[in-house]
Write a structure and sequence with these properties.
This protein is an alpha+beta fold. It contains one helix and seven strands. Bound molecules: calcium ion. Calcium ion (CA) binds near residues 37 and 82.
């Protein structure tokens, strides 16, 4: 058996550095690998809080995002005790209720316009 002195690979896949998140229940995903001894587990933390052991899971639902800049770190351990950390900084924006209302109003207007057009076309055919 070889002695593993190399760090595992770990990469946060679901978000690029500097991205914006608008969901309060955001679930980041990551990948990890270690060619020599294998992955033993992962820990995750948000904004320099406590590390949270997620075992072999490769996703975690973040709660407690703060408005503005957040830092997510994922630490992978290999079976020899080496670890490596992936870091991503992102912006959290609270979803706006006004934006949601605007979308529903736009859908409503489109449905009504479609109905009016259909009635008009039917009327045109009959005359
Ligand atoms: Ca290793």
């Amino acid at each position: 058996m070889s002695i593993d002195k190399t760090k595992p690979n770990v990469q946060i896949e679901s978000i690029a550095n500097g991205s914006t998140v608008r969901s309060a229940n955001w679930t980041p995903e990551w990948t990890s690998s270690d060619p020599v001894s294998g992955i033993a587990g992962h820990e995750v933390r948000l904004n320099n809080g406590s590390w949270f052991d997620v075992g072999l899971a490769t996703q975690w639902t973040a709660t407690g995002l703060r408005e503005g800049t957040n830092t997510l770190e994922v630490r992978a351990f290999d079976d020899a005790g080496n670890s490596n950390i992936a870091v991503v900084e992102f912006t959290y924006e609270r979803p706006s209720g006004l934006e949601d209302a605007a979308i529903w109003i736009a859908i409503g207007v489109a449905v009504i316009a479609g109905a009016v057009l259909a009635v008009y076309l039917l009327y045109q055919k009959r005359t």
